[in-house]
C-alpha cells in the first residue's frame, strides 16, 4: 500500500481507538490490530502514541477551522454568518466520526502540545470572527476578540451539550436556530451603522 494511503488507514484506525477508549487507555497494539498491520509498521509512520494523537488532532483542528472560515465566507449577511458559524460546530460534532472528542473532550489536555492544538481552534476561529466584528462595528480589537471568543465558546459548549443529549426533543436545525438566535440578539447590539 502506498505510504499516503497507509498513513490514512492508520489514522482512521487510531481515531476509532482513541474515540472509543481515550488517549490513556488506547494502546498502540490495539491501533495496529484495528488497522491490520504489525506494530513495527505503525511505528514506521508514527514514532509514538503522542505523535499519532497529535496528527489526528491536527486534522481535526484544521477541519473545524476550515468549516468556520467557510461559514463566515458563505454570506455577507451577519445574521446568516452567525447561524452558519454556529452550525459549523454542530455539523462537526454530528458528522465527524467522534473526532470532536479529541478536540473538545481530550483526556490529555495537561500535555502542552495537546493544549496548544485545542487552543488553536478557539484562537483561529475567534480571530476570524473578531475581524468581522471589528470591520462591521468599529469596536476596538480587544473588545472584538472578547466577543468572538464568547461566540466560539457558546458554539462549542452548546454543540457538545446537544450532542450528549441528542436523544432529546431538539433536532440539530432547531438547536442551531435557538443558539444562533441568542447570539444574534446579543451581537447585533453593537452596530457601527444601521446597515450592519
Brief digest:
The protein has 196 residues and is an all-alpha fold. It contains nine helices and no strands. The longest helix is centred in the middle third of the chain and has 26 residues, at 112-137.
Explain this structure to me?
The relative contact order is 0.11. The mean pLDDT is 90. Helices cover 78% and strands 0% of the residues. The protein folds into 2 domains: 47 residues, Homeodomain-like (Arc Repressor Mutant, subunit A), CATH 1.10.10; 130 residues, Orthogonal Bundle (Tetracycline Repressor, domain 2), CATH 1.10.357. The chain contains 9 helices and no strands. Helix 1 runs antiparallel to helix 2 and helix 5 crosses helix 8. With 196 residues, the chain is mainly α.
Q: How would the blueprint of this fold be written?
A:
Elements: H1 3-25, H2 28-35, H3 39-45, H4 49-73, H5 78-95, H6 100-104, H7 112-137, H8 141-164, H9 172-187
Helix pairs in contact: 1-2, 1-4, 4-5, 4-7, 5-8, 5-9, 7-8, 8-9
Uncertain runs are none
Measured as a percent range, the helix fraction is over 70%
CATH homologous superfamily (4th level) name of the largest domain = Tetracycline Repressor, domain 2
Q: Which sheet architecture does the biggest sheet show?
A: none
Percent strand equals under 5%
Span between N and C termini?
A: 53 Å
Helix/sheet category = mainly alpha
CATH topology of the largest domain: Tetracycline Repressor, domain 2
Number of domains: 2
Query: What is the molecular shape?
Result: elongated
